[in-house]
Amino acid sequence: MKTLLISLVSDQTLPNVQLIKELKGRVTNYLFISTEAMEKKGCRKWIERACNLNQLQILEHKIVNQFSFDDINRKLDEIDFSSFQQIIVNLTGGTKIITLSAYEYFKQLGADIYYVTGNGKEYIKIFPGRNRITKYFDQKITIKDYLSAYGFEPRQTDSSGISADYTEYIYERFLENGFLDHFNALIQLRKKRTSGIKDLSKASAEVHDFLSFIKFAPLSDNTLTSLEIKYLTGEWLEEFIGHKIKQELNLSDEELMIGVVLNKETPTQQVNSVSDFLGNESNKSPDNEIDVMFIYNNKFFTVECKTSIINIIESVDNQDGSKKIKEQNILGETSYKADYLKNRFGLFAQSRILTLTDFYQYVNAPEKEGERNNRKNNMEDLINRCNLSNIKLIDKKMVVNNINSLSSIII
Q: The domain 156-409 is classified under which CATH number: 3.30.2350.10, 3.40.50.300, 3.40.50.2000, 3.40.1350.10?
């Protein structure tokens, strides 16, 4: 039976992908109703790519005037729908005028019309029939499906290869005092995150003391690879959190990824031209790194993992050459990054920032009593900024109190 599935293209591409994947065995042809703006962004191509659609199956795509009922109806009249025994419409995307036009037009053709709610696995059959029938997706959405739907190409960074048992051990050691006694060793290691240390015997006593404290045995004698150093200087936390979530929610490798670099396809028409400013063409787009991302019940979650939201910065006093230590609260820039990405992952993406800083203890530290009001006011402002962006914060106290059911405070 020839069956046509019609999708209305908008910025929210995931509902299109969900219904296409759900009905793939029943549908023979596809029609996309799009606009000039969506075509320039590439939204229709993202949907087709995410669903691996055969171009021979695509009947065509109609580019309509999103503000004109007449233009929409006229362009739909150009298509011979009589050759299809069944017509299915996904009404979820499009502008209000496109949605209203499509509903009225295809209702007269007796089409089956659906709406994807975005609430987990739900979608609703809204026509025909007076009763609205709630259905549930059987097909799971993978991380790759989700990211492709929004134009992202994911690249998973190399794993440290260090066992989950040891990662749990280093988490326990970190809880003791946040490695504050090994501050200098961590500064030295961070400078080697790209190159690694090829001759560990030449490393400082401080580095050796730190490795001894955490009982770390390099994979190769007398060497620390760049992957090992990245792990030791903080990436162990994203591996720890990712492993815990994966275990608790019983997720597959297709549903959870750790350490992901995302590259997004640039739109065909851009606000700013690289060639105008720099004299050369460029198709590059900024890379975005995410610590942990996962799909659960068709909802997309990202987790930014920070061992501490307080950076300790070592600087040199220009007057006497002595070193100074100052603190930098990075919650602001972390929340800005999380918000920036969240807005590109669809309406229902969930963003989390998890840190092993205890906010209350940080604000009320007795040794910093003179700075208490400034710390408190700054933290209040940053927390409220996260509230405005609907980013959930998870601090050390919450992690420790829920360590056996970590997913309960994340999802």
A: 3.40.1350.10
